[in-house]
Design a protein that fits this description.
Helix content: under 10%
Distance between the termini: 32 Å
InterPro entries: CalX-like_sf, Calx_beta, Host-pathogen_enzymatic-act, Quino_amine_DH_bsu, WD40/YVTN_repeat-like_dom_sf
CATH class of the largest domain: Mainly Beta
Organism: Maribacter luteus
Number of domains: 2
Protein name: Calx-beta domain-containing protein
Largest sheet: 5 strands, mixed
GO biological process, one term: cell communication
Strand order of the largest sheet: 2-9-7-4-5
Radius of gyration: 32 Å
CATH architecture of the largest domain: 7 Propeller
CATH superfamily of the largest domain: YVTN repeat-like/Quinoprotein amine dehydrogenase
Keywords: Calcium, Repeat, Signal
Length: 470
C-alpha cells in the first residue's frame, strides 16, 4: 500500500514539475483510479449492489482493471462469484461492477465483502489512487423461529405426558403450541414441566415428574442433550459461576434427602450434590451467591438457604416467613422473599410475610406481615416496584414503602403465575386444569388488558426470548 501511494505521489510530482517547463506543454495528465460503493451496508435480500471504479480525467483508451475480493463474505454463498476484472471504456469516467447478493435462509452474522484494486492495464496515464479499496457489509435478514417472543411452559397433567412449550410473538399475533414436540418430531416427551432456565443460546427445561432436564437451543428448540441421572423431583434451575444449579425435593417420604444438583454445562451432567433442608424451590443468583427459597416440599419450611457457588457449600441460612414461594432481587441488590404462610387446610394456618434481606450481610432488614387468611404468591419486580398476586388481584408496592399496599391495581384475575417485562404484566390462567389455559397480558401504565391468548394445558411459567447474537 505504501509503495502504491508513493508511486502516485511521485508520478503527480513529476507531472507538476515537468508541467512548469514552458518548453513542453504537451505532457499527459496522469489520472487516479479509485473504487467506492454508494452504500456501506446492504441487506442480503437487496438483490444487487454496485461497486464503482472511477477516474478523473477520462482516459482515451480502454483500461482493464483487475481487483481482488476478500473479507468474511463467501463467494457462491453470500454473493455470486465475481470475475476479478472489469473494463473502463475509453472516454468514460466510471464503470460499475454489479455484485449480486444471495438471499439464503441461514441465520448468520453480518459479513464483509472487500474489493481492492490490484492492477491497471491499457494506459500509462492512469495510476491506482488512494481509495483503492471498498468495503460492503452484508447483513442477514433471517431469524430463528423463536426469537423475540414469550415462552410459556406447561405442566400438563400428571402421568399423562402432555407437558408442553408454547411461543407467543412479541406482537401477540402468533401463538405456537407444542413447540418442542413439533420441532423434534416427538409425541409424549415430558411429564410435568416445572420450570426453565437459560444460559447463552441454551435453554434448560426442568421436567419434574420425568426426573430430567431437557437441554435445547433456546431460539430453535432443537434438542441438544438430556440430563436424566442424579435428579429426583427436580424443581427450578439457575446459572452461577459457569455451572447449573437445580433444586431437588428428593423422595417425598424422606425429609433429609433434599439437595441442589450441580451441573457441568459443558458435559450436561450432574457432577455433585449440595445437601439442603426440606423443600428447596425457586432460586436467584447475585454474583457467585445463590439464594434458595426453602418452601418445604411435601412439608413446610421457613428459611432461605445461601450457597457459595465458588465452593458449592451452604454458607448460611436466613429465617423468613412460612412457605417462601418466590424471591426477587431489586435494583439495589436487596433480596425480597414472599412467604405465603401455612394455608388453613394444614390445620396450622400462619400469617404470610414479605421479607427484605440485606445481601451484604444476609440479614433481614424489614418484614411486612399480611392479614389472617391472606396467602400471596408470585412475587415479581421491575425497577423500583414489586408486584404480587393475592385474592385474585395484583398488588403493587414500591421497594421504599414502609407498609403493604391497601388496594389492588388489577382485580378479577385467576392467575397461576405471572411475570413482568418492560412495563407489561403477563399472567397465566390454568382455567379448569384439563383444557387449554391462557396468557393474559396487561399494560402496567394504565392496567388495561392488551391481549388474551389461548395456550395449552396448565400454563405454569413465563419467560422472554430476545434476539439471538449473530
Amino acid at each position: 500500500m505504501k509503495f502504491k501511494h508513493f508511486f502516485i505521489t511521485a508520478a503527480l510530482a513529476s507531472f507538476i514539475f515537468v508541467g512548469c517547463d514552458d518548453d513542453d506543454d504537451d505532457q499527459p495528465v496522469i489520472g487516479a483510479l479509485e473504487v467506492s460503493t454508494a452504500i456501506e451496508t446492504a441487506d442480503e435480500g437487496a438483490g444487487s449492489v454496485d461497486i464503482t471504479f472511477s477516474t478523473t480525467p477520462a482516459i482515451d483508451t480502454d483500461v482493464t482493471i483487475t481487483y481482488e475480493v476478500s473479507g468474511t463474505a463467501t463467494s457462491g454463498e453470500d454473493y455470486e462469484a465475481l470475475t476479478g476484472s472489469v473494463v473502463l471504456p475509453a472516454g468514460d469516467l466510471t464503470v460499475a461492477q454489479s455484485i449480486t447478493l444471495i438471499d439464503d435462509e441461514e441465520v448468520e452474522s453480518s459479513e464483509d465483502l472487500i474489493v481492492t484494486i490490484t492492477t491497471i492495464a491499457g494506459s500509462e496515464d492512469l495510476v491506482i489512487g488512494v481509495k483503492d479499496e471498498a468495503t460492503l457489509s452484508i447483513t442477514d435478514n433471517d431469524s430463528y423461529p423463536f426469537e423475540n417472543g414469550i415462552i410459556v411452559t406447561h405442566e400438563g397433567n400428571f402421568f399423562q405426558g402432555n407437558a408442553s412449550i408454547s411461543f407467543v410473538s412479541n406482537d401477540y399475533e402468533t401463538v405456537q403450541n407444542e413447540v418442542y414436540a413439533t420441532v423434534n418430531d416427538v409425541d409424549s416427551w415430558a411429564d410435568n414441566i416445572q420450570s426453565m432456565a437459560f444460559n447463552g443460546d441454551f435453554g434448560y427445561i426442568v421436567v419434574n415428574n420425568s426426573q430430567k432436564v431437557e437441554v435445547v437451543n433456546r431460539y430453535t428448540f432443537e434438542s441438544v442433550a438430556t440430563i436424566d441421572t442424579e435428579l429426583l423431583n427436580p424443581r427450578y434451575m439457575a446459572i452461577a459461576n459457569g455451572k447449573g444449579y437445580v433444586t431437588n425435593w428428593g423422595d417425598g417420604s424422606d425429609t433429609e434427602d433434599d439437595y441442589v444438583a450441580v451441573i457441568d454445562l459443558e458435559e450436561n451432567t450432574v457432577v455433585s450434590k449440595i445437601p439442603v433442608a426440606e423443600g428447596p424451590e425457586r432460586l436467584v443468583v447475585k454474583e457467585n451467591t445463590i439464594y434458595v427459597a426453602m418452601q418445604g416440599g411435601y412439608n413446610q419450611n421457613n428459611i432461605v438457604t445461601v450457597i457459595d457457588a465458588a465452593t458449592n457449600t451452604v454458607s448460611t441460612t436466613v429465617t423468613v416467613g412460612d412457605r417462601p414461594n418466590s424471591l426477587q432481587l431489586d435494583t439495589e441488590g436487596n433480596l425480597w422473599v414472599l412467604s405465603g404462610g401455612n394455608p388453613a387446610w394444614t390445620g396450622n394456618e400462619t400469617l404470610a410475610q414479605l421479607d427484605k434481606i440485606n445481601t451484604a450481610d444476609n440479614t433481614v432488614s424489614a418484614s411486612f406481615e399480611f392479614a389472617e387468611t391472606e396467602h400471596p404468591g408470585a412475587l415479581v419486580t421491575e425497577g423500583s416496584n414489586l408486584y404480587y398476586y393475592l385474592s385474585s388481584s395484583v398488588f403493587k408496592m414500591e421497594t421504599a414503602s414502609t407498609a403493604l399496599p391497601a388496594t389492588a391495581e388489577i382485580t378479577g384475575l385467576s392467575f397461576y403465575d405471572m411475570a413482568v417485562n418492560e412495563g407489561i404484566l403477563y399472567g397465566v390462567d390454568a382455567k379448569d386444569y384439563t383444557s387449554n389455559g391462557s396468557l393474559e397480558i396487561y399494560d402496567l401504565s394504565d392496567y388495561s388488558l392488551l391481549a388474551s391468548k389461548e395456550v395449552s394445558i396448565i400454563p405454569g411459567e413465563i419467560y422472554f426470548n430476545g434476539t439471538a447474537e449473530r
